[in-house]
Design goal:
The protein is α+β, with helices and mostly antiparallel strands and about 110 residues long. It has two helices and six strands; from the N terminus they run αββαββββ. The strands form two sheets. Strands 3-4-5-6 form a four-stranded antiparallel β-sheet. The protein has a two-stranded antiparallel sheet with strand order 1-2. A hairpin with a 2-residue loop joins strand 4 and strand 5. It is elongated.
C-alpha cells in the first residue's frame, strides 16, 4: 500500500509541469485584450458612446426620435392629465413628454414616479 501511494505521488509530481502549461481554449492569449488599429501612425480605439437626451420644454423632437417613443393612450393609468387638442403623451427614457402632434415641440415634461 505504501508503494502504491509513493508511486502515485511521484507520478503527480512528474506530471504537474505538463498540466501547468495547458491553456484554456476558451480564454486564449488574445481574449480580453483591448482592440486597437494603427493607421497612418494614429491609434483608433473602438468605443461606443451612449448619448442621452436631456429633454427641455420648447425643444423640437426629431422624427427619428419620435419613432422610438412609445405613445401613451391610457394617460389616466400613469396619473397624467388629459392632453389638450393636438397633443399626445409619449414615454421616453423613463420620462413622460407632452408633445404637439404636428410640430413635435415639447409642451410639458413629467418624470416617472
Amino acid at each position: 500500500m505504501k508503494k502504491f501511494f509513493a508511486i502515485l505521488i511521484s507520478a503527480t509530481v512528474l506530471a504537474s509541469p505538463f498540466a501547468a502549461q495547458a491553456q484554456d481554449w476558451r480564454n486564449g492569449p488574445d481574449r480580453g485584450r483591448h482592440v486597437e488599429k494603427q493607421i497612418d501612425k494614429r491609434v483608433h480605439v473602438n468605443k461606443k458612446v451612449v448619448q442621452k437626451n436631456r429633454w427641455v420644454r420648447g425643444q423640437r423632437i426629431k422624427a427619428a426620435d419620435r419613432r422610438r417613443m412609445a405613445e401613451i393612450r391610457d394617460y389616466r393609468r400613469y396619473r397624467l392629465s388629459a392632453p389638450p387638442r393636438g397633443h399626445h403623451w409619449v414615454k421616453v427614457d423613463n420620462n413622460y413628454l407632452l408633445v404637439a402632434i404636428t410640430s413635435g415641440i415639447i409642451s410639458s415634461i413629467v418624470a416617472a414616479r
